[in-house]
Amino acid sequence: MGLVFSLLLIVLGALVAQDFLFEKVPASKKFIEKLNPHKEYIGAAGLVFGLVWLLDAIGWLRYVNLFPLHILEIWISAGLLMTIGMMLSIDLLKKIMNNPVPSLLTKASQWRDDLAPYKKHLGIAAMALGLIYIL
Q1: How many helices (H) and strands (E) does the chain have?
Q2: Domain coordinates of the chain in residue numbers?
């Protein structure tokens, strides 16, 4: 699960910070443009994996005295994965849920709009943590 988690962090980070990546690494445009039509589904997968990873990290709390930085890294990574996943998949969730709780989905859309200025920073942090996990 660690490798899938790392790759998902990197891909979601690249999708969120794509404008920044296009400026710095023009060769990444081909790769990201292939993923763009599927970004809502990739975001939903990130949301689910982040939730699973967060629930799994609860079991790691008994080792907080031994590995405090590693556990903090797991919690931050899971939070990033869920945040970016929610940002990318909110439109898909609106379609799937058929607006059962309109106030919840409007709050989520508003939350996504509030986080929009920080997309570049969230994406860079997600890609960095994904690379740390792979290494």
Answers
A1: 7, 0
A2: 2-134
